[in-house]
Amino acid sequence: MTVTVRFAPSPTGHIHIGNARTALFNWLFARKNGGRFILRFDDTDRERSKKEFADGIAVDLDWLGIDPDAVYRQSERMARYDEVKADLIARGLLYPCYESPDELELKRRRQRMRNQPPIYDRAALELTQEDRERLEAEGRRPHWRFLLPGHGENSGASERHVTWEDLCKGPLSVDLASLSDPVLVREDGSFLYTLPSIIDDMDMGVTHVIRGEDHVTNTGVQVAIFRALGGTVPAFGHHNLLTDVHGEGLSKRKGALSVEALRAKGLEPQAVDVVAVRIGTSEAIEPIRALDDLAEGFDLSATSRSAARFDEADLAAVNARIVRDLPFEAVKDRMETLGVPAKPEIWAALSGNLDTFADVADWWKVVTGPVERLAAVDDEPFLAMAAELLPDEPYDAGTWKSWTGALAKESGRKGRALFLPLRLALTGREHGPELAGLLPLIGREQAHARLKPV
Ligand code: GLU
């Protein structure tokens, strides 16, 4: 069977780097196994799901290098979910409950006082047809719970322990006896994500479900429902979750780590890819050229069991390494977009000092000027001498060396005393790309004017 995975975000916000990690794990798993990748919008929550978020997620995935084989929206599959709902009701596996949130809270409080686990007591199973009619006449609407194994048709004791060989964590098990029967349909008739997800996984032939470890308990419940529906239970992998540097979980509301925000900061998608995939694994966070470079060595079982701390400094560092290494062919269009002439010698001169690609435009401004001239009063005679000794054009990569060699001899200066005043006068900055590369771009006329203004 073709390996089929899915990334199933609810479009209720922007995806963050932790969501990107889930998407990338699925994508790489599919790539490595010659499989298919489905993008599925879990948009059954009509209030909070927004088209603009779904569109944004598609753009983010494309930017990361993920190209889904198919896209689905749960909101377009409601008729199918209703059909399965009716089937489960007919079989007594989905039952109506009428307790209000306050009543449920009261029950839980009582259970805790008696040192009992706060599990739903299945009181609604005892309701007669008349009871239900009376409750509905009072204006109550039911929510619907799935009968976990241990009751009625679903009573096999062995079914109560769901065990699986997790692709990330090895053997895992969930004891369903420790859980409340899950609500699958809300009072207003809308579906929670649980059931539609299973129906979709079955209908779409999903073979592997790879998601965050916050879903482990859901998996126990979902496996029971897969079985009740006679579906093939997919393999599951639950990876560790990213936290921020303080160890706090990421959430869609914390926009700063959204993929969109990282893109707006001018980071390369490859940098985000490699950090999102390798953080919290034993593999090094090293520059990659393309997302596919990560596929070969990709190993779900290498995601460590503890949370992985995401530090933007790691991202910035690998981003700088990636940018500096980009071949001219890969950047020429981007240079033009930023108003920098697409010439190999310009890229060669400027690339070595970039943190983000957009910095190339700043350095190009330094080349073309005007720059703020920085010069200590004491250095003025030296700079005048430097201007005098500037060779005639044409300039090449060797010009800097021969010029500063002559200047060293004439002035008796060397090291920092020789180079820093030149850098400050020529670029207006203390640090930057090699002057040997910059000087030919600045040219004699400009260089002369910056060294010894008239
Ligand atoms: N919509 C769910 C979420 O965003 C999907 C979980 C899953 O992959 O099954 O958490």
Automatic annotation (TrEMBL):
Residue span of motif 'HIGH' region: 9-19
Motif 'KMSKS' region location, chain numbering: 249-253
A Pfam family of this chain: tRNA-synt_1c
Keyword Hydrolase on entry: no
Any Gene Ontology biological process: glutamyl-tRNA aminoacylation
Residues spanning the membrane: none
Residue ranges constituting the Glutamyl/glutaminyl-tRNA synthetase class Ib catalytic domain according to the UniProt record: 3-315
Annotated Gene3D superfamilies: 1.10.10.350, HUPs
Compartment list: Cytoplasm
Domain Aminoacyl-tRNA synthetase class I anticodon-binding positions: 379-452
GO terms assigned for molecular function: ATP binding; glutamate-tRNA ligase activity; tRNA binding
Residues reported to bind ATP: 252
Assembly with partners or alone: Monomer.
Job description of the protein: Catalyzes the attachment of glutamate to tRNA(Glu) in a two-step reaction: glutamate is first activated by ATP to form Glu-AMP and then transferred to the acceptor end of tRNA(Glu).
Protein's name in the database: Glutamate--tRNA ligase
